[in-house]
Amino acid sequence: MKKILAMLLAMVMCMACLTACGDTAADTDAKDVLIVGTNAEFPPFEYLGDDGNPDGFDIALIKAVGEKLGMEVKIENMEFNSLVAAIGTKIDASIAGMTITEERLQSVDFSDPYYDAYQYVIVPVDSTIASFDDLTGKKIGCQLGTTGFFIADEDIEGAEAVGYNKGVDAVNDLINGRVELVIIDKNPAMVFGEKFSDKVKVVDGAQFGFEVEQYAIALPKGSELVQKVNGALKELKADGTFDALVAEYIGGDK
Ligand code: ARG
User: Quick check: 201 pLDDT over 60?
Assistant: First the structure.
């Protein structure tokens, strides 16, 4: 009888231990959270939806990535200019139509590229600006911290780069005549061009010789997430999800 009691007691203790251990396991089972910074001022990649929350191609893409990784994605909307510095501290990653650049590679790692982009030019409807030389000495509106800003600031002779927190504010100042053109990525340029089509027109960046850029997801340097995110991106391309998102949010010829 004593033996049976002792055995029972041992079993109860063992089970208690298992449950306790199970508890910790359950904790790690709870979905890991991935805090992803964006700048929801860049349609169709990211913008504020009708409900006030960030929406767009990038947001849908990173949520699909999170699903593949079994992680819950939380979007943090912030200024574009502060995204890179926040990676690894305030945020775990950034998706923001962000171009892979040498300079950014000094402080972050990028996933495989997921989209090709070009800088485009927005000018008043009656403008004759059509070639790189036409940009010389111009006052150029751009979103701060973007590749468009760096082109205006560094590559165009005598030009004055005027930085805005939001691309749309640069377009508004173009309409007001405070800047003479805006340099911004193709897809947002098309969206803004359409929105203000009575006042502005969009010129293909190829006419100015701007180089192709590649968007990728930015991650902390050396993060093991890079491989995981790349794996998820590959799966999303293979299973058709990626193309479906392109069709839904970007459409047309990409
Ligand atoms: N592709 C450009 C860059 O990386 C502009 C990106 C702006 N993105 C945004 N969400 N506002 O600099």
Answer: yes
